[in-house]
Amino acid sequence: MSEEIKRMSVEASKLKSVILRNNNIDILLYLAKYNPTTTIKEIKERFGEESLKEIDLLKQSHLVREEKERLILTDEGIFQVEGLLTLVV
Amino acid sequence: MTSIIQKRNFKILQVIVFLRKSSGSMKDYFKETKKLLEEKIPDYDTPQFKKLRNKIREKLEKKESDFLIIIRSLSILILGDWYNKEKKELLLRIKNNLLKNGLYAETIDKYYDIKKKGGLGQIQILEECCINHQLIIFIDGDGKGTIIDQNYICENYWFHGKVIFFIEESKFNKMKNDPSKYIRDFPTIITYKKEELLEKILVFSRLRLYRLANIIQTQKYRGRGLYGQGYVPWKYRIKKS
User: Fold this and answer.
1) CA B29 to CA B35: how far, in whole Å?
2) How many domains does one find in chain A?
3) B35 touching A, CB under 8 A?
4) Which long-range contacts (CB under 8 A, 24 or more apart) does B112-116 make?
5) How many domains would you assign to chain B?
6) CB B149 within 8 A of CB B83
7) Which residues form the domain of A7?
8) Which residues of chain A have pLDDT under 50?
9) Is residue A22 part of a domain?
10) Residue B73 CB partners (closer than 8 Å, separation 6+)
């Protein structure tokens, strides 16, 4: 159980730091607004070359997934973006 | 310290209850929520978008947001009969009710898509699900799949701590005095009358996950347990005594 708690805590901290990195809040809000038509190319044009690295981190955190060159917000991603908006209600 | 955490948790709960009241019943929570997000989020390239992003960043950078992140990173697996339309709809209603109250929940059917692609069997799916979810809501049933789930969970004791078993009160009353019945295998049993099931699952899931999130947060802040430099695991403490 203790190991499990440690793992959960690390995962939650990691999730928070991934969301806070660079333009990731913008990317998540952008995807929540314009999905499912957003392409990776479009994200690269909007948020710069470096956003590709961020996309990989968002994928590892299960917030987005790639499908035929499009970038899709996952169910977990939708749930987390909704959570972000509750912070500013 | 504890009272500050409790007050903050209560505030989060109030926000969730507000959101719950503002949303009606829905078929697919994620599709509906996505639509709501599209409406709520301003167009990109507008000052409103930047303002929203800045506000989120500001709140998220504060320690106070940790609890919300922890709660939203925990997940619930709902297991129960889904062999007919009525049963499937019940599981969906339970899932949506948890989601719209800020608790992430999944049903096992999501993992059956994996089965189509990768050919995972039911036991392999259960292995993956039971490890990756922090709470398992198990609803008593009579379907073949539910009995496999039940046997799997009963044999694997280390999952028992994260299972809450829900059973209809009348069925429980018939079995409660007979310890040879299968209900003995579940350490946490909650009985329900049909119309109470949704509410009871929400109440007990929320209590369990908030407790877990509180433990995670308290251990981290106080430097106790695994986070303290002087932490000694129990197996060593027992050996020494």
Assistant:
1) 10
2) 1
3) no
4) none
5) 1
6) no
7) 2-83
8) none
9) yes
10) A8, A11, A12, A15, B104
Q: Does B215 touch chain A (CB under 8 A)?
A: yes
Range of the structural domain that residue B230 is part of:
2-237
Predicted confidence pLDDT, tens digits, chain B (241 residues): 455 555 555 555 455 444 444 444 557 899 999 999 999 999 999 999 999 999 999 999 998 899 999 999 999 999 999 888 899 999 999 999 999 999 999 998 776 655 455 556 777 777 777 888 999 999 999 888 888 888 888 888 878 889 999 999 999 999 999 999 889 989 999 999 989 999 999 999 999 999 999 999 888 776 655 555 555 655 665 565 5
B220/A contact by beta carbon, under 8 A: yes
B16 reaches A (C-beta below 8 A): yes
A2 interfaces chain B, CB cutoff of 8 Å: yes
Q: Residue A6: its chain B contacts at CB < 8 A?
A: 226
Nearest CA in chain B to A30: B44
- Chain B CA closest to residue A20: B57
Give the residue from A4, A6, A2 showing the smallest Cα distance to A14.
A6
* CATH (domain of A71): 1.10.10.10
pTM for the predicted model, two decimal places: 0.83
Query: How distant is the Cα of A52 from the closest Cα of chain B, in angstroms?
Result: 19
ipTM associated with this complex: 0.93
B1, B222 Cβ separation under 8 angstroms: yes
Residue A89 counted as domain residue:
no
Interface check B114 vs A, CB under 8 A: no
Residue in A5, A19, A32 nearest the CB of B37: A32
Residues on chain B touching A26 (C-beta within 8 angstroms)? 44, 53
